[in-house]
Structures are given as C-alpha cells and as structure tokens.
Amino acid sequence: MRIVLVGPPGAGKGTQAQFIASHLSIPKISTGDIFRANVSGGTELGRQARQYMDRGDLVPDEVTIAMVRDRLGEDDARDGFLLDGFPRNVPQAETLKKILAEWDTRLDIVLELVVDEDEVVRRLSGRRTCDKCGRIWHVDFDDKQDDICDDCGGHLFQRDDDKEEVVMHRLEVYRHDTAPLVQFYADEDILVGIDATGPVEEVTKRALTALRPLEK
C-alpha cells in the first residue's frame, strides 16, 4: 500500500505514521530521515542539502525530490510505503505522481489528520522539554504542577518553536503551502480525512479502519 500522510503541525503525524507503517509492514519514509541519511552518508545529494541546511535555508525542491526518488527506489519500498512530510506542496505532489507513473504505479490513499487549530495551539504551546534527558511533558496532559522533570530532576523549558506566536505562524505557513495539497488529493479522489482528536490509540483505530478496504 502506498500512503501519504498530511495534516497541520501538532496533528500527530509522526506518531501515527509509525503505528500505521508498522501495522502494514511498510517503511515509514520522512524527509527528515532522508536528509539525515544522505548527510551522514556523505552522498552528493547530502552535500548539496547540507549547504542549505547549514545556512538555515530550506532545501530546494529539486534536491528534496531527488532524495525521495532514490529512497522510494530502494527494495523495501517496492511493495509499499508511507510518506510523512512529503509532498509539502502541489508541485511536489505533481512530481511524485509522475515518478510513480514512471514505475507504473500510483498512490492508494492520502490520509489527512484533521484537528482544530485551537487544539493544535494547545497541544504545542503546552509542551515543556527537559534540559537534561530531553523528555517532553505537557502542562495539561501530564498534570504538571512545577517545572521539574519527574524522570531525572532536570529543568523543564518551553522551546522557541512551541511558543504560541510561533505555532500560529507555523499554522499560517501550513494553510498557505500545504492546505492546497489537501484539495489536490481531494480532486484526485484519494483523500480520506481522519479525526485526529482524542487518545492516540483511538486515532490509530480510525486510520486503520479507513485503510482496511484497501488491504489485500
């Protein structure tokens, strides 16, 4: 099964991608993983990407797409994959469609994790990270009454990208760049929306239920 997972920041894509891919015995492929593998492996694409990453710039589409093409061509992705974080925009989606067409295949389904923006802000702005062990706690979900990590005694702090104003900006970027992707896949008639609120296990059940008609 060939799946793309989309949704706003804070929707739980990384967590759901791991569970779904494991259930289907297909590789979870994220652009972050691909970037790290190419950079650490010293590939030509990795060297190109690092030039941009070291400057804090976005890696250009052509480099990202080349990396994704190489990864999808590996043996473990031959019978299926789950893409998390790619495509991010309509041009990338169109290119992915062409790549798969060259291999005489196509996406089976695009799962959209649907969550209210107020909930996204609550999820992300409530996160606190331990400065010692790196564990993430939540001021609401973990009922924390202090700024001390219960695991190691480290100090909990709010990362810059978890601050409310930054989260709001990330949502704005998502609406501008990625939301049109949802319409693109709706027009392709392969988009299925999944309610991403509630316990992780419940969201996973909804996703697997949506995928069940496609399982062989």
TrEMBL record:
Q: What is the reaction catalyzed?
A: AMP + ATP = 2 ADP
Q: Where on this chain does AMP bind? A: T31, R36, D57, L58, V59, G85, F86, P87, R88, Q92, R159, R170
Q: Which InterPro entries match?
A: Adenyl_kin_sub, Adenylat/UMP-CMP_kin, Adenylat_kinase_CS, Adenylate_kinase_lid-dom, P-loop_NTPase
- Compartment(s): Cytoplasm
**Pathway in which this enzyme or protein is active:** Purine metabolism; AMP biosynthesis via salvage pathway; AMP from ADP: step 1/1
- Transmembrane residue ranges: none
Q: What class of enzyme is it?
A: transferase
Listed GO biological process terms: AMP salvage
According to the entry, every stretch annotated as the Adenylate kinase active site lid domain falls at: 127-161
Task: Spell out the molecular function terms from Gene Ontology.
Answer: AMP kinase activity; ATP binding; zinc ion binding
Q: Where does ATP bind?
A: G10, A11, G12, K13, G14, T15, R127, G198
Q: Which UniProt keywords apply?
A: ATP-binding, Cytoplasm, Kinase, Metal-binding, Nucleotide biosynthesis, Nucleotide-binding, Transferase, Zinc
Q: Which family does it belong to?
A: Belongs to the adenylate kinase family.
Description of how the protein assembles with itself and partners: Monomer.
What is the stated purpose of this protein? Catalyzes the reversible transfer of the terminal phosphate group between ATP and AMP. Plays an important role in cellular energy homeostasis and in adenine nucleotide metabolism.
Database matches in PANTHER family: NUCLEOTIDE KINASE (PTHR23359)
The identity of this protein, by name, is Adenylate kinase
